[in-house]
Amino acid sequence: MARHYRPSYLWAKLKGSPNEFSLQGRIFHSICIFGMIGLLISAPINYSLHQYEALYILFVAIALLIIFFVLSRVAKRVELAIGMFGVAINIFFALIFLFAGGINGPNLLSFLIALFLMIIISSSKRSKMMWCAINICLMGGLLYVQYRHPNWVSFEYEKLTDRLWDHWFQYIILASVLYYGTSYIITNYEFERKSAADRSESIRQQNLEISVQKEELERLNAEKDRLFSIIAHDLRVPVGNVYNYMNLLFETALEPDKRQYIEQELKKQLAGTSAMLTNLLTWAQQQIKGITVKSEPVNIRTCIRDALEIEFETAQTKGVKLELPGEDVVVSTDRYVLQIVIRNLVNNALKFTAPNGFVRVTAAATANAIVVAVADNGLGIPEEVQATIFTLHTDPKTGTRNEKGVGLGLLLCRGLAEALGGTLRFKSTSGEGTTFSLELPVEKNNY
User: Kind of pairing, strands 369-376 and 358-365?
Assistant: First the structure.
């Protein structure tokens, strides 16, 4: 299928794209094209005025422009082509001066055209000044030659009308070149300025993104360092205690009541260590590849009861009353993730609730959400640390019986709550207790 070129597309292909050529290169290609067109237009004018020597020079100049254009546009030897063009155009206008009326012709305008073209396509200030000096010296030399040897100029106008039309057409050509040249420079300057501004804005946006990523990496590294610092301390202690208990049990003959006490302590230490490792592994999985949620109909009361088997024993040992939901509430959610959240919230509540206190777990359906709440009448959360309890920037506190934690549970709970499509909120009064509420939107379930 033949391709139909629009004029603007063809013109863009001829002069070259900004990705291939500099502004001077694109202007030079445009000058070559317009120069060939202008010379072709001038050819019949010179023929009608019987300026046959000038006509031959025009055809040679057209051939040279084609060569310069191919050298620059195809071979991409832009600087070489511009240099050769500068030499040729000055020689061309010098010959035109000698064979087309000299000072009586419009050649002073022609030399201004040559100077203007070389100024706009030269890439450096030094080369602009060089071509300016060459142009002035050449024009001065030609004027002097005609002054000293007037017979060297081989053409005189036959009629004043011919002189009028020749000057008029040359002036039109000069005006067209000046108009196009200045317009093209202004247009491309605006284009280059806008492109530079766009590149600058793009770089600024990239720098902002890099800065944000840097801050995020620094934050993650700080959290990682803090987490491993906490784990190095809080994991080493219970593991060391387990090791000591095991040595004591196997190497020492103990009385039954002391042996039972040590076994209970051993079980407590193992339960705490197991919960800590579960939280750590779950959090690590969430940070690396996220949590995959598999929704299914879940009876919250049954789910919570199955999740809190160890917590019941902990509550009984500590003398804290642990209450579960009294009614069945069914929700479409991930059973495993929900159990991790409830288990952490209940563990936290038991840790900060004194003997004879209570921890109450409830589940209720409202118009907008299924709300699972864990309430206690324990120590409460001091107001000055409430803003940071869902981060690693809060130092883990010891419970009412010196229970330890890594400070990861609440951060993990919030992340898992969001993975379930819900939110985790809390209300707390120091010395009176805390209530955490997990809200799952109604649209997440159909029950």
Answer: antiparallel
